Amino acid sequence: MAGTVIACVSMANVFLAFYVMHTFKASGTTYGIIVSCEMVGLILGGIAVGNIKKTRHEYVLIGALLCLAIGVLGTGLAPTVWWIIPCYLLGGIGNGAMATELHIVLNLRVPDSHRGRGFAALGAISNSAPAVGYIIAGLILLVLAPRYAFIGAGIAALLCVIAFSRNVVRTGEQQTPAAEAA
Prior knowledge:
Layout: H1 2-23, H2 28-51, H3 57-77, H4 84-109, H5 115-140, H6 146-181
């Protein structure tokens, strides 16, 4: 699930320059401000996860992925370029929370003897998903305007989170007793 959402967000990163400068006729400075807001959100998301104590990890991860999906979809629906800023801030918060939460879950739930493999698998997904997203984004921009590309990527990410959330929660319920026993 996370890999698909990461790919959709990576597609959005390709769409953004065209969307800001061609659709809204905004400047490179505006583009830079939007990307900077995403970085601020990234930091805030990581800090927020560190302060969440009583919520199960699965719900934090699902919430983070929802923030990413809604941020992408909201960007596609933005009526003006300045509406993109809160969308990218929300997406950045989701991105920071997701990255932090995935590392926490791996450290808590994967036995020491397999932790290296777990981090290798996470690295494979988090490094290959953006590459796949960039390639798909280039192809999508050949046939769709950036606004519709954003909307499509946002809907795809949102549907993915909705479709797989139940399995994530169920898997977490099965893993929690084993992790506590260890």
